[in-house]
């Protein structure tokens, strides 16, 4: 038996309880978690913004050590450090054939499987976003684990599984930020802080961080922000004032709210680019009129998993970490146990802090 954070039903409080995991069958890997990040997507699963089968063990951003492997698994072995990949690509759907593995049609097929059983009543549990990282141990498909790059501490490596890939990819793959350009990042949580660091790595000349909390300014500046703007109805005007009344070249929206998306779009220059990373609900409607779309010539695009291919991008990120350009520790504002996850959810809802990291 291992302890895990279980979502019994959509909208219900998380329950920290014992679960029984199966032994890894063919093509499966058992992993002892070293750490798991508490991501806003987990909160979106718990409140129904994103839908997966329940009851479920949540958590999708994690790293740990391989305990056992099933038949046919050859790329990792017991004792290896691994990063969990919650969205493995199938390699055969239309998106994968186009090389857009982050849009794989079958990436979340595993979320409907039976992952484990509750120790108290034997009821079936699903693996939230495939990997069920909010647990002392998990059993996942072999394509859901990638070797931890050399020189990366296992606990820090957990952040590579979502926040860093997403924030880095939003800047480099979606917005395609170029050296000397200006950028605004909306939301200074885990993904936003990673995006700020990515903008610094890209050589942005001005990096504006936007958030509702004045307490996050120090975090944002440490991550690379040159300016900090408290979110208000005047945010777009303030950002344009910082950029010679032109607006930034690119905006990265990490909140997922209609008003923030609209503000991010209005903060860019004519011909600017807005990348939406935040996951909003169906009720968050963003509107534009036809004339402004023509006149401003701006681009608005969605971004899934940072438009990343983890197998391709993890080695690149590892290089930035080893060279001191990317600081994973700067994303973490609290280290907690499994029992601290509900409070971490409350902090995210209130807009407090960066990434909370569950350390096992």
Describe this structure in words.
Helices cover 26% and strands 26% of the residues. With 360 residues, it is of the alpha/beta class. Strands 3, 5, 6, 9, 10, 17 and 18 form a seven-stranded mixed beta sheet that branches. It has a six-stranded parallel beta sheet with strand order 13-12-11-14-15-16, with helices on both faces. Strands 4-1-2-7-8 form a five-stranded antiparallel beta sheet, with no helix packed on it. Strand 12 (206-211), helix 6 and strand 13 form a beta-alpha-beta unit. It starts with a strand and ends with a strand.
Helix count, per DSSP?
Answer: 11
Order of helices and strands: EEEHEEEHEEEEHHEHEHEHEHEHEHEHE
Kindly name the structural category.
alpha/beta
Termini separation: 15 Å
Low-confidence stretches: none
**Alpha-carbon Rg, integer:** 20 Å
Q: Strand content of the residues, in percent?
A: 25-35%
Q: Which whole number gives the mean pLDDT?
A: 96
Helix content: 25-40%
Major β-sheet profile: 7 strands, mixed
The tally of beta strands, per DSSP, is 18
Q: What does the overall shape look like?
A: globular
Ordered list of secondary-structure elements with their pairings:
Layout: E1 2-7, E2 15-20, E3 28-38, H1 40-47, E4 56-57, E5 61-69, E6 81-84, H2 94-97, E7 116-118, E8 124-125, E9 137-141, E10 145-147, H3 154-157, H4 163-174, E11 182-186, H5 190-202, E12 206-211, H6 217-223, E13 227-230, H7 235-242, E14 248-253, H8 258-266, E15 268-276, H9 290-296, E16 299-302, H10 310-322, E17 332-336, H11 341-349, E18 355-359
Parallel strand pairs: 11-12, 11-14, 12-13, 14-15, 15-16, 17-18
Antiparallel strand pairs: 1-2, 1-4, 2-7, 3-5, 3-9, 3-18, 5-6, 6-10, 7-8
Helix pairs in contact: 4-5
């Amino acid at each position: 038996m291992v302890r895990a954070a279980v979502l019994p039903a959509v909208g219900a409080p998380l329950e920290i309880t014992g679960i029984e995991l199966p032994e890894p069958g063919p093509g499966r890997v058992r992993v002892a978690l070293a750490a798991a990040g508490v991501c806003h997507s987990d909160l979106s699963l718990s409140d129904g913004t994103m839908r997966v089968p329940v009851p479920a063990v949540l958590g999708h951003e994690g790293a740990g050590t391989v305990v056992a492997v099933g038949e046919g698994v050859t790329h990792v072995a017991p004792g290896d450090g691994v990063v969990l990949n919650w969205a493995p690509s199938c390699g055969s759907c239309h998106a994968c054939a186009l090389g857009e593995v982050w849009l794989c049609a079958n990436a979340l097929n595993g979320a409907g499987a039976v992952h484990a059983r509750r120790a108290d009543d034997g009821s079936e549990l699903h693996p939230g976003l495939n990997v069920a990282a909010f647990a002392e141990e998990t059993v996942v498909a072999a394509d859901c684990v990638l070797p931890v790059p050399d020189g990366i501490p296992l606990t820090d490596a957990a952040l590579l599984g979502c926040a860093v890939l997403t924030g880095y990819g939003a800047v480099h793959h979606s917005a395609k930020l170029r050296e000397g350009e200006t950028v605004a990042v909306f939301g200074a949580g885990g993904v936003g802080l990673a995006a700020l660091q990515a903008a610094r790595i890209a050589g942005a000349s001005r990096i504006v961080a936007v958030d509702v909390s004045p307490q996050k300014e120090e975090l944002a500046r440490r991550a690379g922000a040159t300016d900090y703007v408290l979110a208000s109805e005047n945010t777009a005007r303030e950002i344009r004032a910082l950029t010679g009344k032109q607006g930034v070249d690119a905006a990265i929206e990490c909140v997922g709210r209609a008003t923030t998306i609209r503000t991010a779009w209005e903060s860019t220059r004519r011909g600017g680019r807005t990348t939406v990373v935040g996951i909003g609900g169906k009720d968050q409607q963003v509107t534009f009129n036809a004339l402004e779309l023509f006149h401003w010539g701006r681009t608005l695009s969605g971004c899934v998993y940072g438009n990343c291919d983890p197998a391709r991008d993890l080695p690149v990120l590892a290089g930035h970490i080893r060279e001191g350009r990317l600081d994973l520790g700067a994303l973490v504002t609290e280290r907690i146990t499994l029992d601290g996850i509900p409070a971490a959810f409350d902090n995210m809802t209130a807009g407090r802090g960066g990434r909370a990291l569950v350390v096992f």
